[in-house]
Amino acid sequence: MESRMKNPAMILNVNPPIQTIMGSIYQSGISSELLEYVGLRVGQMNNCELCIGESIVRAKNNTSTRDRIEHVLEWKHSKMFNESEKTALELTESVTELKNKYQSVPDELWLRVEKHFDEKERAALIMFICTMNMFTRINVATKQITAEWE
Q1: pLDDT per residue as tens digits for the range 66-115
Q2: Alpha carbons 133 and 136: distance in angstroms, whole number
Q3: Per the CB 3.0–4.6 Å rule, which of 14, 46, 71, 137 could disulfide with 78?
Q4: Tally of CA atoms within 13 A in the half-sphere of 95 that contains its CB
Q5: Who contacts 1 (Cβ-Cβ below 8 Å, separation ≥6)?
Q6: What is the three-state SS of 24-81?
Q7: Spatial CB neighbours of 28, under 8 Å, sequence gap ≥ 6
Q8: Under 8 Å CB-to-CB from 69, ≥6 apart: which residues?
Q9: 3-state SS class at 144
Q10: Are 144 and 51 in contact (CB under 8 A)?
Q11: How far is CA 96 from CA 10, 41, 65, 126, in A?
């Protein structure tokens, strides 16, 4: 497969602000391991081979995620994830699908999100899910086969 074009973020020179967003997310206090699972789940849902592959490569070098990364697809039935991680993965699916407009993230789910994550972590989680959705959509639309964010 050949890319259709250079990564649009590179063409428009918007990588620096994207990296600022990502830096803020990673400094929010939310676990980088959890963000790895969330990012992989977005990649899986949006059929982004590049995103899935990058997650698997990063997990091989991280002993805390290596054993659990393979279970992200079946997170609902896996005993590998705790309640806060499952809540984050459920939120990820709800935000990625958006199939019921403003009810896509039901109040019941949001209450669980509030229970497990403080305001800054919730902000980081929402921003990360949305940013990862942007990445996957760019990659799929333009057939990105290698990471071109630097």
Answers
A1: 788 889 999 999 999 999 999 999 999 999 999 988 899 999 999 999 99
A2: 5
A3: 71
A4: 24
A5: 143, 145
A6: HHHCCCCCHHHHHHHHHHHHHHCCCHHHHHHHHHHHHCCHHHHCCHHHCCCHHHCCCC
A7: 120, 121, 123, 124
A8: 36, 37, 40, 55, 56, 59
A9: coil
A10: no
A11: 24, 9, 22, 10
Both tokens of 51, joined, read 């995103």
- Residue 149 in this model has a pLDDT that exceeds 70: no
Distance separating alpha carbons of residues 50 and 52, to the nearest angstrom: 6
**Picking from 17-26, 48-57, 75-84, which range would have the lowest pLDDT averaged per residue?**
48-57
Largest pairwise CA distance in the chain? 45
Q: CA angle 111-114-116, nearest 5°? A: 115
And the tokens for 101? 């407009």
Burial degree of 79 (CB within 10 A; 0-12, 13-18, 19+): exposed
Contact 105, 129 (CB under 8 A): no
Residue type, 89: L
Residue located via tokens 């620096």: 16
Answer positive or negative: Cα dihedral of 36, 126, 130, 86: positive
Is the pTM higher than 0.90? The answer reads yes
